[in-house]
Amino acid sequence: MENLNSLSPIQNKRMTCYGGVAAAAALPSPPPTTLTTLPSSPCNTFVREVGSGGAEDPNTVVKQSVDGFKWRLLVSYDGTRYKGWQFQQTPPTIQCILEKALTQATKLERKDLHLVGASRTDGGVHAWGQVAHFITPFNYDSLDSIHAALNGLLPPDIRVREISAAVPEFHARFSAKGKIYHYKIYNDAIMDPFQRLYAYHVTHKLNAAVMREAANHFIGTHDFSAFVNSSRNDGMPNPVKTIFRFDIVNMGALLQLEVEGSGFMYRQVRNMAALLLQIGKEAIPPDIVPKILATRDRKELAKYTSAAAPPHGLCLVAVKYNAEHLQLPLGCPTTSLGRHHIVSKCKVPFY
């Protein structure tokens, strides 16, 4: 093992950040990112999704050894004018815009950032609590400057709310233990123009009580095959998910569906919302939910609702992780929550 006294200041800083001699010794020499099949320290190994054509394909998983530092982002966005989170060759997507800002702020290439999001939201879906991570081959003394730079480069409908150092074991997607989604319905004869981009307008008077009764049937561990669209393989073939809570909240004309679960498959939340809307209109009874679940057949759901609820009513509110994945590594900068500008006192007297 390399003598600690011979380590450069940069290597010493990396060793401190990742918490040990083994971490410092395991860091490879430049170039900063190298593909490897050799065993490596947990401090610099992570699982990355790799696909064809530059787009991420979750069906292909490789391990990469990365000489660098991992950073966690908390991101909010208005998804109205974007084609979802996932990178694709034809922009605009949230990941494309965020990667462009990161390449400008860090001076790194896209392939070296390894940006991964916790949830690959659909086009038109919003997020208040999207989580992502990226890699740099260098450390930061402070995160306030890059935080300000990113938000200065991003369009006003995308904002990085928080940047923090992440432990090597953290992965924005694979470390997630739960997610919270809200679906908003504006239930009135006339749509509030200020809600039109964030709530689905339903003029038929909905029965919130029967919707709550139906939502309770979703709670627990079930096979949700009947509520997933098969047009996209999201890399999570196990259809068994656990719903921890499913609340229907009245807020005047707004009816908010709040669902928290261990994970969700492609369009699962919007399909559940679509069925609850039909139940709220009293077109079908609440006990239809367990019957559809039992079939594990998407065609059975199609008998009662022809399409998923529109995307603009859906918002990713939060992604949950175990506490150990949210700990800050030793020697790394403190979390940046944004820089407040302070106006200094004027020294010229007023008359």
From TrEMBL:
It is an enzyme of class 5 (isomerase). It catalyses: uridine(38/39/40) in tRNA = pseudouridine(38/39/40) in tRNA. Its EC number is 5.4.99.12. InterPro entries: PsdUridine_synth_cat_dom_sf, PsdUridine_synth_TruA, PsdUridine_synth_TruA_a/b_dom, PsdUridine_synth_TruA_C, TruA/RsuA/RluB/E/F_N. Keywords: Isomerase, tRNA processing. One of its GO terms (molecular function) is tRNA pseudouridine(38-40) synthase activity. It holds the Pfam family PseudoU_synth_1. Residues 75-174, 214-322 form the Pseudouridine synthase I TruA alpha/beta domain. SUPFAM superfamilies: Pseudouridine synthase (SSF55120). GO terms for biological process: tRNA pseudouridine synthesis. The keyword NAD does not apply. Belongs to the tRNA pseudouridine synthase TruA family. This is tRNA pseudouridine synthase. It comes from Salix koriyanagi.
